[in-house]
Design a protein that fits this description.
single chain; mainly beta; Neuraminidase; four-stranded antiparallel sheet; three-stranded antiparallel sheet; 9 strands; 8% helix; globular; disordered N terminus
């Protein structure tokens, strides 16, 4: 997959990009399902963060860049997951508060809380 194609997918998804950003995290597809990727804007290197049979989408990086919240249907419904970006071997943890569908996670400015859309 070429970097141009992946970045166009990221822009199509309307992932917010800050001027001072050196990396972006986005969802993209290799043709089968959507997974999460990290792209270094200076080198063009792309690293796949998730690789599951489920759909992962709506990534949100904490203000300190250490955590990643995202939505996945791994458990059959759109649930909220949290992953450490500091440890490549870190497993994503389901932090959903209950049954229902989660969407559009966003960290608070201090990174201690996550706001999310929820539908029972």
């Amino acid at each position: 997959m070429k970097i141009v194609r992946i970045l166009l997918i990221a822009l199509f998804i309307a992932f917010p990009l800050l001027c001072e950003a050196v990396e972006i995290v986005f969802c993209g597809s290799d043709g089968s399902q959507f997974d999460l990727y990290r792209a270094d804007l200076k080198t063009g290197e792309i690293i796949r963060i998730t690789e599951t049979k489920a759909e992962e989408s709506m990534p949100a990086v904490s203000p300190d860049g250490q955590k990643l919240a995202f939505v996945s249907d791994r458990d059959g419904a759109n649930s909220l997951y949290l992953l450490s970006l500091l440890d490549n071997a870190s497993a994503a943890v389901n932090i959903s508060a209950g049954m229902g569908s989660y969407a559009n996670p966003a960290f608070s400015p201090d990174g201690r809380r996550i706001a999310v859309q929820y539908a029972p």
